[in-house]
Amino acid sequence: MNEYENKIHRWGRLSTSLAIVLFLSFPLFVSIYYNAWPGWGPFLSGLLGVAPIFWVVGAIEAFTFGPMLGSGGSYLGFVTGNLTNLKVPAALNAMQSMGVEPNTEEGDVVCTIAVAVSSIVTTLVLIVGMLLLAPLQPILQSPVLSPAFDNILPALFGALAVVFISKNWKIALSPLILMLVLFIAVPSLSSAVSILVPVGAIFTLCISRLLYKKGMI
Amino acid sequence: MAAIIIGYVLFQSIFFLLKAWKHARVIGLNMKRLKRAAGATAIFTIAPAISIILGMITLSKFLGLPLPWLRLSVLGALTYELPAASTAASVMGISLSDTVTSPNVYSAITWVMTVGILSGIVIITLFLKRMQSGMFKLRQKDEKWGKIFMDSLFLGMISAFLGMIFSDIRSGITGWIPVVIMLLSAMIMLVCGYFVKHRNVKWLENYAMPISMLSAMALSIPVSFLMKGGM
User: Fold this and answer.
1) pLDDT for B54-68, tens place per residue?
2) Which of A24, A59, A106, B49 has CB atoms 3.0–4.6 Å from A100's, for a disulfide?
3) Do B182 and B68 share a structural domain?
């Protein structure tokens, strides 16, 4: 690792640790301010409902998106959140249009810039959204606009798919078939898509390894 | 309090942006193209960010504004916050449709939602460096496989979401709406690709993605209307 990489990791670890402390200070502040401590019972039973799924999802996301986003991009992306619906597609698109590869120095820099820009814009949009909530709410929630927001993921992944499938249709074929069969057979899986991302990733890796060993890709 | 945390994260983003920007110049990236790519990323972000505001509105009915604002600006994601809040609420025997008024319940929910999401960020803080050097080594050892490895990860993710788009098709014609929107977005992307490659419209390369996404979202309004049997 070169000097830039080492620096990014040092800053990344430091700033992310500080972010974790700050995040924890919010419930702490609420508890102290209202003098309302939840008590271990409600806290643990609530956590038991949330943690088994979300800790696993979070861990899987870390190991799936960590390599995709590179160093600076990952530290920022995991602090700012909204990875699958925003940061990862933004980084992929930026790398694509710059013609750089992930896990190279160039890719790392481009990812960091994409994730940072995307985080800044999201934060600003949300600040505006919060300040103007009263006048904005009826417009945003109007029935005319609702199909547009309901279909944001199809609109995003349709375009993204064209780029990546056309580049590697041989790799894409088997996971696509698997996912189509899975989701059409078990529609309720759509609420568990974050679990199926790593399933898809690992399945694709295995198939790719086979194809690669046989010299087909 | 929420504002302080959001301010900190904003500062962190700007800090990394400046560092990466400086380094981009050092390693000789095309700064003009990079500027355009950054601009395209900003435009691309706006529509999903607005959909996040919608999530904020939904959650604020239950939790008030500060917590949803904080969680959706940093750390959280739409896909996490709604299920996490509803799970926490149901464990405590309250409904998501009522505003939380009891300080005890509110504080319990903030604790659960905070601790419940920390695994990813903790792992990244502790292990990213090791993960990254592993990926670099993989790439050095076998460059071609390293590239296929990354493409497989991306395609695994994209396939999962493409599959999800089809999950409603058995519910009748309205279930096909997302599929149609996805195809429209893909077609617009193909048209953009044609202009970039064969007509040499270079600026379009960066904006093809936001253009396809926003046009498909706009088209979803008449498409949904038609497919839901309006006229």
Assistant:
1) 878 878 878 888 888
2) A106
3) no
Boundaries of domain holding A80 = 1-131
Residue B132: φ, ψ to 5°: -65, -40
Contacting residues of B for A121, CB less than 8 Å apart: 41-42, 45-46, 49
- ipTM here: 0.82
Whether residue A176 is contained in a domain is answered as no
Q: What are the DSSP calls for B124-136, one per residue? A: HHHHHHHHHHHHH
Choose one of B111, B141, B166: the last residue of a domain. B166
Residue A181 lies in a domain: no
Q: Is residue B231 pLDDT above 60, yes or no?
A: no
- CB contact under 8 Å between A26 and B121, yes or no, is no
The string of pLDDT tens digits covering residues B140-174 is: 888 888 888 888 988 998 999 899 999 989 888 88
The answer to whether residue B178 neighbours chain A at the CB level (below 8 Å) is yes
Tokens for A25? 């200070």
Do B12 and B89 sit in the same domain of this protein? yes
Check if the beta carbon of residue B182 is closer than 8 Å to that of residue B213: no
Of B119, B143, B166, the residue at which a domain comes to its end is: B166
Nearest CA in chain A to B105: A38
Neighbours of B201 (CB within 10 A): 14
